[in-house]
Task: structure prediction
Amino acid sequence: MYSGRTAKVLRENKIKTGDRVLVESRGRKYEGILMPGTRGRDPSNVIVKLDNGYNVGVKLEKITKLKSGEKIVFKPSDIKSEKSKKPHVSILGCGGTIASRVEYRTGAVFPAFSPGDMLLSFPELKDIARISGRKVFDLLSEDMSPSHWKIIAKQTAKEINGRAEGVVLMHGTDTMHYTSAALSFMLQELPVPVVLVGAQRSSDRGSSDNAVNLVSSVLAAAQSDIAEVSVCMHAGMSDDYCHLNPGTRVRKMHTSRRDAFRSIDSKPFACVDFNGKKIEYLRDDYRKRGRGRVVPDTKINDNVALLYAYPGIKPSVIKSVGRDHDGLVIAGTGLGHVPTNPFGDRHAKSILPEIESLIKSGVPVAVAPQTIYGRLNMNVYTAGRMLKESGVIGDGCDWTPECALVKMMFVLGHTKTMEKIKKMMLTNYAGEISERSLPQTFLS
Amino acid sequence: MYSGRTAKVLRENKIKTGDRVLVESRGRKYEGILMPGTRGRDPSNVIVKLDNGYNVGVKLEKITKLKSGEKIVFKPSDIKSEKSKKPHVSILGCGGTIASRVEYRTGAVFPAFSPGDMLLSFPELKDIARISGRKVFDLLSEDMSPSHWKIIAKQTAKEINGRAEGVVLMHGTDTMHYTSAALSFMLQELPVPVVLVGAQRSSDRGSSDNAVNLVSSVLAAAQSDIAEVSVCMHAGMSDDYCHLNPGTRVRKMHTSRRDAFRSIDSKPFACVDFNGKKIEYLRDDYRKRGRGRVVPDTKINDNVALLYAYPGIKPSVIKSVGRDHDGLVIAGTGLGHVPTNPFGDRHAKSILPEIESLIKSGVPVAVAPQTIYGRLNMNVYTAGRMLKESGVIGDGCDWTPECALVKMMFVLGHTKTMEKIKKMMLTNYAGEISERSLPQTFLS
Result:
């Protein structure tokens, strides 16, 4: 899968993926197995699996074959749509554990999705939908950036406008809830479901959740009438059900559990019964499936920072980070507080002057709850009132810190006027600000 | 309660708390009701309740009485210990909603604790223990700083070494879990229970939780044999039970609910049955009540920052915050990841070089899970291995971001050697790193 000059160099040296090679680059030597190159990576780089298990991307300067290896099979997709009345679901691969294969000879887990592979692994997908698909890129979740959100939004829209009746996005889990929030803002007024799906355990582990999650996500994309961005992941510890969580309200709440993804202060849209192969709706207040095109709105400004408020936070943190960014979201304590020291305690340090001067200089500042759950109320205590008075945005909102960050990036892509920013931030576009809190949704 | 020159100026002008005054200070005028001054505040400040409801602390330069008001009664404590066999529990007031009184004439909620007030409000406390107590300070929770933790630790030790058989600390809820973590490290090998307690709703609200929480905390301090730092707050939505949550594992998980405090990846020590006035133990692996003194270890270095990793985080955030601090904790994604971009994706930005250069310059960097729940495992994915290899601390730990921050402050108070820092960080001192994960503790 290497192209251009890199492919030429490999051909000339009779080097194939799987060979043991020595790459010399920028004065350093890298010895290991040549791994397949994939789209979305720098084409002048080759991927080498070092003996310590790392895969490194190295600028190709000089390469020597040390020993021939087995060929690593890595087929791109060319599944043709079947002639059937089943709905057409497009699967786009964005990387992550779910789209990973274990290369058993080297023991590496690497993203290597093709719809052909998926149909081979999960033949039941054919009974649910006509599957087409392709790989957009194959990134580790933690490397996903706002630039990638734009690409995913555009590629998703392309599938929908090309008549896909549902889109499944295979994505790494670490930052899936940031991406789902971004897509919720970028792909408003959807005609069909857009379902993000991932796996907490790779497919070589007995406890892998990739089969249940993937099949459930295709079921949701094909059958459900939920024309919203959602995240489909295990609902509990067993392999029976997945939840379809709203894109702006979902959060990864555990490092490793299969049921790590939870709707925050909200019910999931639906439960997907994996065994019964059907959708059980839990709500009715979502956008229904319809016809029409979607116009992706990918105008964002990614120069926004997310900071945590904590005891002893130095005012310089707000100042130095704030002046480098066009917007700031602070995960405040309790109902939306930061150190303000209204009574002049001699040990306490207020960060309010720095926040005020940021806002005065045109940098919007929003607050989100570091408690994760619950709604901000900046009218109860002095600290909240002082923050609100200074122009900090967030009173009455129940957004997560992650969603508030993504929303501010989206808003700053659309306006630079402080009044407009404030108005847009406080407008509910995609379920990120709910009208009322549901007591039964706490920690459930 | 004003003292020194401030008291003299007030006396000379025949001004009493409750009077309507005009204060001129630093070229600005403040008109409102003169509120009581309290210990722990800058003695040269007066507190004025403005007509908009704010309480402001103003440096006293010139003050004029506009109108006499009713005297605001504000008695300091002088409860004498009763002659009885009941255990002696010392209540220390540190501020927060639980120690707040509503001043009905002005409508202000302000911290105003004295044990006399508490016994007046909750006569059942007399049946549980001989209560003594005093106010240490009366801070809003969000203004609590590492300097205050030291004062609280020393004052708590003073009570214990003065024969208190249990200590209750009334504290604001926003940052109570930071303080409980700090006290867990500073007050190791406790002979008696130290129980932090707060209220989510002030006492003027029908739904206030202050009675149940306070009485339960005194019960726990007097009767339980749990010689640990714990947080006593509502266990559920009803007024029947409180949980005693471990000081290093507790977290405020909701902005406003009375049952916001949860043990993370851990069971609470015990349940306090408010109606039955008894303790129901949920675990047995805690330090038991004994005899002896406690030596507070308040050596900390509060120059540590907590940052969030998120898609698109600029390397400059790590750099600018890192170089201003002696230690850094990053709330990483998933199993403990940050953007590392091992395959040279053209959109992704790695923050690994900045982390590496911080560590090389002697600034320790630790990771904690932004998922809140779950254990870090930096061996599964490339990003984790690269971070671990660079010297980042945290692999295998299940600490919360807040506890990791406090722990690094404590550790840096004891050593400056990177190897020693690493060793201390990875040593379990107070339950902050658990040996095994309990599945049933997720979101419960």
